[in-house]
Amino acid sequence: MKVTKTQALENRARIVETASTLFRERGYDGVSVADLMAAAGFTHGGFYKHFASKADLMAEAAASGFAKSAANLAGNDAASFVQEYLSRPHRDALGHGCTFAALSGDAARQPESIKQAFADGIENQLAILAREEDSLSESAKREARAKRIDTLAHVVGALVLSRACPDDSPLADEILEVCRTAVLGQLDRKVEGPNGG
Known about the structure:
InterPro entries: Homeodomain-like_sf, HTH-type_TetR-like_transc_reg, HTH_TetR, Tet_transcr_reg_TetR-rel_C_sf. This protein is mainly alpha-helical. About 70% of the residues lie in helices and about 0% in strands. The chain has a domain at about 55-190: Tetracycline Repressor, domain 2 (Orthogonal Bundle), CATH 1.10.357.
């Protein structure tokens, strides 16, 4: 039976969505193409009708995860983002949580296409957090960008450390709480330009 173009696109989207979840749960090396295709409801042989390689799918799945994170972030200010990001529900939602926290360590050992997908995702996240900075001077914009990079690195690192602890470990919650408090405190200190704003 011939598959229509629409159905082929839907099948591809299902594979990408399944891959995005499985990669975040198990890491890139923890998911075989056969396992992935079975989880998506397809045969192993169908994979290469959609993707040239597993690395191509990895990059596309990462981009998909970043796009979803960006959509969720779009309506939040930085403080709301930090509160939600460094929460126990997000920590425990490995397959549906942040792609950065789940896969950055894996991405560092992958081909350039995957590293580029991560770099693009980071830039996009930073741009979304940059709302309301148009009126700042150039030096204040650079300082604000440095602050956003620090915030993103801090929350991702905190989530990674918390997830590395056993689920019932008091340390897992302590890391989230200490870092959430520290980052929110830093956000309260507004970046000022040379003339005080």
